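Q: What residues go here?
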């Protein structure tokens, strides 16, 4: 005797359980979509020694487009790196790696993942040579930008120059972020004069006076805790040219205030920045 058993899947589970599975399935689709979207906006790979095939840690990885740096990162202890960027036009992009005691290496990108950069050790000969550093260099947890290489005659303030740095963003309120992460501390010549209001400095320090900007990863402002307590904070320090230190700088911003009556108004900023002493005064003029 043969018995045929048919189960209606629609009614096999209680209504509440069926509703639960629908929600779980929708959540799973959302997670998968997020992971796929994230993967599509990252370029990753590994940096290794060409002979030993061992990973190279703390290498500086730069993403180039038309020879210009778009963004950058550092390789981790396993030599791995990941850069946030669209992968829609990989043929227009290149990866460049630099590391201490290795020759600079640049490769084309054919895939967003599993990029392999093999670096050749640099053999140094003891002779008199002149070495010119690149616009971006890195030592341990500090990445240094040579601001003189990014400044042009059209730039008025430090803010204009910082906006040109790859991976650095300065919004209208003055907030600064590096590779999408807000900085926790902003100093000039090692001192914090802004009290968190970065735009007071970035808009009043003149572009022609800046020398370099240092991005400090794992910043620990308390000296007694450095190398003892881990920090995930990112800080930035800007240094000035020698002739600009301790010099009194005045910035005037006149404007016409429309009202009854229309009148002339304005603001003034007085700034003096040095390694040991820094002062800043703001004044508003409004004559009616």
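A:
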């Amino acid at each position: 005797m043969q018995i045929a058993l048919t189960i209606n899947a629609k009614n096999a589970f209680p209504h509440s359980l069926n509703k639960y599975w629908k929600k779980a399935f929708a959540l799973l689709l959302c997670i998968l979509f997020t992971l796929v979207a994230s993967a599509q906006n990252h370029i990753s790979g590994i940096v290794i020694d060409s002979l030993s095939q061992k990973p190279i840690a703390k290498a500086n990885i730069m993403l180039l487009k038309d020879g210009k740096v778009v963004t950058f990162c550092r390789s981790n202890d396993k030599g791995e790196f990941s850069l946030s960027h669209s992968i829609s036009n990989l043929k227009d992009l290149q990866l460049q790696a630099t590391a201490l005691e290795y020759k600079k290496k640049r490769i084309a990108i054919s895939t967003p993942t599993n990029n392999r950069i093999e670096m050749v050790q640099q053999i140094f000969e003891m002779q008199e040579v002149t070495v010119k550093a690149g616009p971006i260099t890195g030592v341990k947890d500090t990445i240094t930008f040579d601001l003189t290489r990014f400044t042009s005659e059209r730039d008025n303030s430090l803010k204009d120059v910082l906006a040109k740095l790859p991976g650095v963003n300065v919004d209208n309120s003055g907030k600064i972020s590096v590779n999408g992460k807000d900085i926790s501390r902003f100093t000039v010549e090692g001192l914090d004069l802004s009290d968190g209001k970065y735009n007071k400095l970035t808009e009043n320090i003149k572009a022609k006076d800046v020398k370099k900007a240092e991005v400090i990863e794992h910043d620990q402002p308390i000296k007694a805790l450095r190398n003892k307590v881990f920090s995930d904070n990112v800080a930035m320090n800007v240094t000035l040219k020698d002739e600009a230190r301790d010099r009194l700088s005045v910035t005037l911003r006149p404007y016409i205030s429309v009202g009854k009556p229309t009148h002339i108004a304005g603001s003034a900023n007085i700034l003096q920045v040095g390694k040991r002493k820094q002062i800043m005064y703001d004044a508003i003029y409004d004559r009616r």
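A: Context that may help when evaluating the design: Helices lie at 15-39, 158-162, 199-202. Residues 15-39 form the longest helix (25 residues).
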